[in-house]
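Lay summary. Proteins are chains of building blocks that fold into shapes, and those shapes determine what they do. In this project we predict the shape from the chain. Here is one chain we studied, written as its sequence of building blocks.
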Amino acid sequence: MITKGARLLPSAPDGASWWLHRKLIGNGLELHYDTPIAGRERTSLVAADGTRIEADYVVQATGLQAHSLVHNCELATRAEDGLLVNSRLQSVADSRIFAGGDCAAMEDYALPKLGVFGVRQAAVIHANLLAMLQKCPLTEYKPQKNYLAILNLGDKTALATRGRFWWNGRFSMKLKDLYVSAAATAAGLKEWCALIIRISERLRFICRSVKKTL
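And here is the predicted shape, written in a compact code that computers can read:
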């Protein structure tokens, strides 16, 4: 495994990073830190300093980046991070456009590409779209300082971190599964609630129309 960083999981606590390092080493992996790759020649990866590393197969993991469409729409963006938005998640170049999650970059913040931020931003965007239609004040999104991040290790265990705390094991994996299941259930409930509200509004409109004809 090759990375240009000085350690694994740079935003995680030092102990979690060191634990993951030892786990990978224990599984037979060879780790190369501070090694940016400049190119590839046949079966070799070429580092920026000219070092060649032999590799039969290469899996390139460059991290999450916004789709090229975002950078080609002639709106203000932040390189690789996505559409530049304000605290109300509006494009700083066009207040009619909202964005959140992996395709957006907030002013004055450098948020990691994690679902916990995208999920909460989605609720703010939904509220602000309705507020705009009703000409009401918009809600600001304030990212939480501490957040739960859970890394699936592929062996039915996971590494969980939150702030300066971290833990690993099967419980972490179960917690991740529970969180995903709860998020899906919550999304489903919101859709049903929205549908019920739309039906109720339609029924009220029909009732008013009937009263006027009587």
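What the prediction tells us: The chain has three domains: 1-62, 68-133, 157-213.
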